[in-house]
Amino acid sequence: MSIESWSDQILVVELQNDPAFTDDMTATIDQVAERKDVSVVLNLSGIGYLNSSNIAKLLKLRKSLISNSQRLILCGIDTNVWGLFLVTGLEKVFEFADDLPTALATVQIGADSR
């Protein structure tokens, strides 16, 4: 499993293509349900494609985090995957960062300002 607690309030998830994607996203959604105070950074650098089931899991995770006033940031996105976000309009739904350090800094700054 590639889910780590970067801090008490931030989970970092290193995603890979299916079937690991589905397993890790299910585990992440479960952890978010248990811990209402956690934001999530998803590192998609290991993802070469997304299918509709993957997108549904991303949206489900986003919904649960937003309902708890927490953040979801996606980073390390491949050009092909970024094209999918653009075509579907999901680039307006999710928050993105170029790389993992930038995503972590963004979440940390947001947590510090609360």
Textual characterization of the structure:
The protein is an alpha/beta fold. Helices cover 47% and strands 24% of the residues. The chain has a five-stranded mixed beta sheet with strand order 1-2-3-4-5, sandwiched between helices. Helix 3 (79-88) links the parallel strand 4 and strand 5. The relative contact order is 0.17.
Helix-strand layout with pairing:
Blueprint: E1 3-7, E2 10-16, H1 20-34, E3 39-46, H2 52-67, E4 72-75, H3 79-88, E5 95-97, H4 100-112
Parallel strand pairs: 2-3, 3-4, 4-5
Antiparallel strand pairs: 1-2
Helix pairs in contact: 1-2
Distance between the termini: 30 Å
> What's the mean pLDDT score?
91
Please report which band the strand proportion falls in: under 5%, 5-15%, 15-25%, 25-35%, 35-45% or over 45%.
Answer: 15-25%
User: What is the total domain count?
Assistant: 1
The helix count comes to: 4
Order of strands across the widest beta sheet? 1-2-3-4-5
Computed structural class:
alpha/beta
Largest sheet: 5 strands, mixed
Q: Outline, from the CA principal axes?
A: globular
Return Rg in Å.
Answer: 13 Å
Q: Output the CATH topology.
A: Transcription Regulator spoIIAA
Low-confidence stretches: none
Output the CATH class name.
Alpha Beta
Fourth-tier CATH superfamily name: STAS domain
Known CATH architecture: 2-Layer Sandwich
Helix/strand order:
EEHEHEHEH
Number of strands: 5
- The helix content, as a percent range, equals 40-55%
